């Protein structure tokens, strides 16, 4: 087999608590990751000459900085394969929005090339390689909704309700590093348990600062929160409102102004990448 097309889904941070800060500046978190059935599509074709080409360059981002290419390079050097690849990314996920598109692209490329190059690395090894690219890559590699601790890399799979969401990307770009450096960020939240989250919910500690720094986020937050309980994902800028069923989500979606970048999606405990990989394995 020489070519594969695989999805690279979005994630939500259903809540995000910051418990402290490590000496290296990274923050200790507690968060709950769930996937959405909303995804980029990535097509990978094997090359014999070892070259790694991105056929769909992103405006303003050098190909060598694209996480899809970085993931391919890491796998290439970890396995010493002589093979290369052409990679095309059909982008659907808002970039820099806290839905993890770049990390998800990296995880999908790791899985796709591991199949095409027949390098046979375990999920654990792929997650270890992915962590070098970003704190969120391992959860996409494993593909199970997860309770996360540490800097987001200590994962415990969980089974959660799978509600419907309206996801909105306010028209602004937020730097993750900038939010984590903010002097007013809450860094001393008490740890909680999954059971406590399921009973009472929990906040996103970045939300107050992001809403204050970015009026556009605050405006969209108020609009969505009138329709259903709303949260920031990650460090933003995307906001999500939760609905128990598809009909109520659709009704609310119709009330949104036309100029908003909004998506209707379902929460998934198994990433659609992994559903796809499983159905491939079953059909072989
Ligand atoms: C906090 C989360 C929640 O999902 O935010 P989003 O990026 O999704 O919004 C992620 O873990 C982010 O992961 P990712 O975007 O991969 O972050 P990285 O590239 O590893 O780090 C970007 C910058 O954020 C800060 N950072 C990141 C993670 C962390 N636990 N503590 C930090 O202080 C560091 O300053 C780092 O330089
Ligand atoms: N394949 C990729 N898709 C999206 N962003 C990428 C990719 N490769 C590198 N990036 C960079 O990573 C940044 C964060 O992207 P993304 O993962 O979409 O956001 P977030 O971490 O906020 O969820 C982008 O602004 C972009 O500069």
From TrEMBL:
Q: Which InterPro entries does this chain map to?
A: GHMP_kinase_C_dom (IPR013750), GHMP_kinase_C_sf (IPR036554), GHMP_kinase_N_dom (IPR006204), IspE (IPR004424), Ribosomal_Su5_D2-typ_SF (IPR020568), Ribsml_uS5_D2-typ_fold_subgr (IPR014721)
Query: Under which EC number(s) is this enzyme classified?
Result: 2.7.1.148
Annotated positions binding ATP: 94-104
Identify the residues that the record assigns to the GHMP kinase C-terminal domain, covering every copy: 188-258
Q: Which GO terms describe its biological process?
A: isopentenyl diphosphate biosynthetic process, methylerythritol 4-phosphate pathway; terpenoid biosynthetic process
Top-level enzyme category: transferase
Q: Which residues form the active site?
A: 11, 136
Give the GO molecular function terms. 4-(cytidine 5'-diphospho)-2-C-methyl-D-erythritol kinase activity; ATP binding
Domain GHMP kinase N-terminal span(s) in chain numbering: 66-144
- Per the record, what are the reactions this protein catalyses? 4-CDP-2-C-methyl-D-erythritol + ATP = 4-CDP-2-C-methyl-D-erythritol 2-phosphate + ADP + H(+)
Its job: Catalyzes the phosphorylation of the position 2 hydroxy group of 4-diphosphocytidyl-2C-methyl-D-erythritol.
HAMAP family documented for this protein = IspE
Q: What is this protein called?
A: 4-diphosphocytidyl-2-C-methyl-D-erythritol kinase
Biological source species: Zooshikella ganghwensis
